[in-house]
Structures are given as structure tokens and as C-alpha cells.
Automatic annotation (TrEMBL):
Coiled coil: none annotated. It comes from Gammaproteobacteria bacterium LSUCC0057. Belongs to the enoyl-CoA hydratase/isomerase family. The lineage of its organism: Bacteria, Pseudomonadati, Pseudomonadota, Gammaproteobacteria, Cellvibrionales. GO terms for molecular function: isomerase activity. This is Enoyl-CoA hydratase/isomerase family protein. It comes from the Bacteria.
Length: 252
């Protein structure tokens, strides 16, 4: 399995672990299907009150969509967006325990969680602009809803690394702690959430998610713009450059 779920009914805390360290914990079609299946399993876990989302290794929390499958067409940006929507809709409060840096769609996976805990020198890099790719509009809408338009522009338009201190300032990180306390802080937060009314917490989370839903007409127009971008020559050049390990050369 590429993703594992461990759950103790006694502790009421579930831990979801991405286990593809050799691929920087990127998400291929198998992993995305596993994510969605786990979300269904969690919905049925009545005694579970909190979910910790983390990954194997210490170099990368998640590198987003598997670029080889994205380039071959086996994996589409819409499939990735569908999986992120499922993670965001997990009924229990979710905590991203960021054991390593996050890249591209991996940064959105963390943003889908209700809390994000990291230790310096954590950073995220969101590279679609360097690949000639328009990020899925549903994902862009999530960044605008949760962080605001200004912060979203900072993260997406430059394709530059964003360090932990800045991520804390813009609200992407909810906790920035010493590396030695990373696991303990996540566990303490999960235990605190477990002590609260599960009905009230679940209900308010669902309402927050409702308020964050993008306008359908705007989303349709955004999807048209994204499809125009992603059917152009820039994306093909960007993926070819990654495969050849060279800088891309984009046309005007």
C-alpha cells in the first residue's frame, strides 16, 4: 500500500501516512484512490475524533501529483483536484504533521487539513508557473478562501520557495515548532480536539467548508481558462524540460 491508516478506537486518533519516500511521497493514481478510500473509511469511524496526516521519511511531506503520470496523461489535474476535495471534506478535524518540505500539490494536501504543524527550515515550493501549467482552479480557489488572494499570488506567481517564517505570517502554517517537539505538538493538539464536542466540531468544520465553496459560474470560467493554458505548448515544454533535466524555454 502507498498510504497507510492506523487507528486506535481507544485513543480516538487516526494517523494517515503517505509511504512513497523514494518518490518524495508524490501521489500517483494508486495513492489518490487510496486517499479517497481512506476518507470513506474515516467517515464510518464513529469513535475517531481527530486525524493526523503525515508521510514517511524526513525529506518530503508530499511532492504533489506524480509528474510522470501527469505527463503521460494517466493522471489528470481534475483527478488530483477530486482527491483534494475528498481530503478537505474529511469529517474529523485534520492535522498535517509536516515531516519534510511540500511541493506543488503536496502543499495543497496540507492546506486541505485544518491545522499545519512544521519545524524550520520547512518550506513549500509551488512550481506550476515554471512548468507552463495552470494549477487546478479548485485548488486556487481553496488558497484564496483559506489564505486570501494576496498570499495566494505570492505562492503561485513566482514559483519560488516560501520559508516557514513567512508561511506562519500568512496563515499557511498554524504552528512552527522545534523539530524535537513536532510529533508531541501534533499529538497534544489531537488530544485536545478529542476532548471537545465531536458534534460541534464536525458541524462547524462542515459549515466552514460550505462557506469556502467557490461560485459555480466563476469556477466554470476559471476551468475554461485553465484548459486553454494547459492545452498549449508551454506545458509540453515544461514537462519535457523536467524529463531532460534542463531549464525550460517558453515562447512569447
Amino acid at each position: 500500500m502507498t498510504i497507510h491508516l492506523s487507528y486506535s478506537a481507544e485513543q480516538r486518533i487516526a494517523t494517515l501516512t503517505i509511504d512513497r519516500p523514494a518518490q518524495r511521497n508524490s501521489l500517483n493514481t494508486e495513492a489518490l484512490r487510496a486517499l479517497q478510500a481512506i476518507a470513506v473509511e474515516l467517515a464510518a469511524a464513529q469513535r475517531c475524533r481527530a486525524v493526523i496526516v503525515t508521510a514517511s521519511g524526513s525529506q518530503s511531506f508530499c511532492a504533489g501529483a506524480a509528474l510522470d503520470q501527469l505527463g503521460s496523461g494517466e493522471l489528470s489535474s481534475e483527478q488530483y483536484a477530486d482527491a483534494m476535495d475528498v481530503v478537505a471534506a474529511i469529517r474529523q478535524p485534520t492535522i498535517a504533521l509536516l515531516n519534510g518540505n511540500a511541493y506543488g500539490g503536496g502543499a495543497e494536501l496540507a492546506l486541505c487539513c485544518d491545522y499545519r504543524i512544521a519545524a524550520a527550515p520547512f518550506q513549500i515550493v509551488i512550481p506550476p508557473a515554471a512548468l507552463g501549467l495552470c494549477y487546478p482552479p479548485r485548488g486556487l480557489a481553496r488558497y484564496v478562501a483559506r489564505l486570501g488572494g494576496s498570499a495566494a499570488r505570492q505562492l503561485f506567481l513566482s514559483a519560488q520557495p516560501c520559508p516557514a517564517e513567512q508561511l506562519l505570517r500568512i496563515g499557511y502554517l498554524t504552528h512552527l515548532v522545534d523539530a524535537s517537539r513536532l510529533d508531541a505538538v501534533a499529538q497534544q493538539l489531537a488530544e485536545q480536539l478529542c476532548s471537545l464536542s465531536p458534534l460541534a466540531v464536525r458541524t462547524m468544520k462542515e459549515i466552514f467548508n460550505l462557506f469556502e465553496q467557490p461560485d459555480l459560474q466563476q469556477l466554470q470560467r476559471a476551468q475554461q481558462l485553465a484548459e486553454q493554458c494547459n492545452s498549449g505548448a508551454d506545458l509540453a515544454e515544461g514537462l519535457a524540460a523536467v524529463a531532460a533535466k534542463r531549464p525550460p524555454v517558453f515562447s512569447d
